[in-house]
Amino acid sequence: MVYGFLIDMDGVIYRGSELIPGSDRFIHELRTRNIPFRFLTNNSQRTRRDVAAKLSRMGIEVEEEHIFTCAMATARFLAQQKPNGTAFVIGEGGLLTALHENGYAVVDHDPDYVVVGEGRTFNLELVEAAVRMIMRGAKLIATNLDPNCPTQSGLRPGCGAMVAMLETATGTKAFSVGKPSPVMMRAARKELGLTTDETVMIGDTMETDILGGVQLGFHTVLVLSGGTSKEDLDGYTYRPKIVVESLAELAEMMERTDWRPFWQPGVTPKRDLRPTRPPAVLPS
Ligand SMILES: [Mg+2]
């Protein structure tokens, strides 16, 4: 029974620089059992090498090929739409590297696209330049539309907030590539090399991970170790297939079927984990 996982990172694997207990063991099991997986992130700041290094510092050993960022999805999408194009970039290393790797030149005059990603380099000079380029015909591309991102010291504005400023100023709508866009969800599934029904999306955010998974027809797992609580679920018209506290609980559930996909029909627990006999009562 073939299956594999697309796994969001922030709120699933770690919170800031803190590992969520049990996530390392879950990834270790996937590696040991040769279950395919990819990490899927809407953060365009880091290259896949940066991301692998961050995970390694937390004790999770993965290869670069296990990482799929919205910066990569955006650059590949643009390379398909307009090979060898030019881009004016408001963003950081991950996005610049991905564009270069996909045959794009980063320019500051007359670009084909204005591409916006996460970063701390955002300033009004860049915004002014971008607005003028868009008014002259450059197309506005967002790596994602996340309104904000959690950090250790609280929320910071996300890529979506920066993009909203450009949209309002120019009266145009950005095309967004990151989760939940089918562009990124489908590209990630192809990276995994699996079919829709074999793909399971694990995430902590309803608006991106779960919505994207539901729209593509993947199986979906919501973990409550990040930004969503059980009570929040009532406010949504779509639902995840499985809800767990964290990857530690998902690992426990997988254990019961010896890591066969319990969400598929016909997969039954391999062994009963309930005690087969009542506990012995000592004579008084
Ligand atoms: Mg997340």
Automatic annotation (TrEMBL):
InterPro entries in UniProt: HAD-like_sf (IPR036412), HAD-SF_hydro_IIA (IPR006357), HAD-SF_hydro_IIA_hyp1 (IPR006354), HAD_sf (IPR023214)
Cofactor: Mg(2+)
Sequence positions that bind substrate: 179
Pfam families: Hydrolase_6, Hydrolase_like
Residues of the active site: 8 (nucleophile), 10 (proton donor)
Binding note for cofactor: Divalent metal ions. Mg(2+) is the most effective.
UniProt protein name: Uncharacterized protein
Region (Disordered): 264-284
SUPFAM superfamilies: HAD-like
GO cellular component terms, A-Z: cytoplasm
Family affiliation: Belongs to the HAD-like hydrolase superfamily. NagD family.
Highest taxon in the source lineage: Bacteria
Keyword tags: Hydrolase, Magnesium, Metal-binding
Residues annotated to bind Mg(2+): 8, 10, 204
Gene Ontology molecular functions: metal ion binding; phosphatase activity
Organism: Tuwongella immobilis
Gene3D superfamilies: HAD superfamily/HAD-like (3.40.50.1000)
CDD domains in UniProt: HAD_Pase_UmpH-like
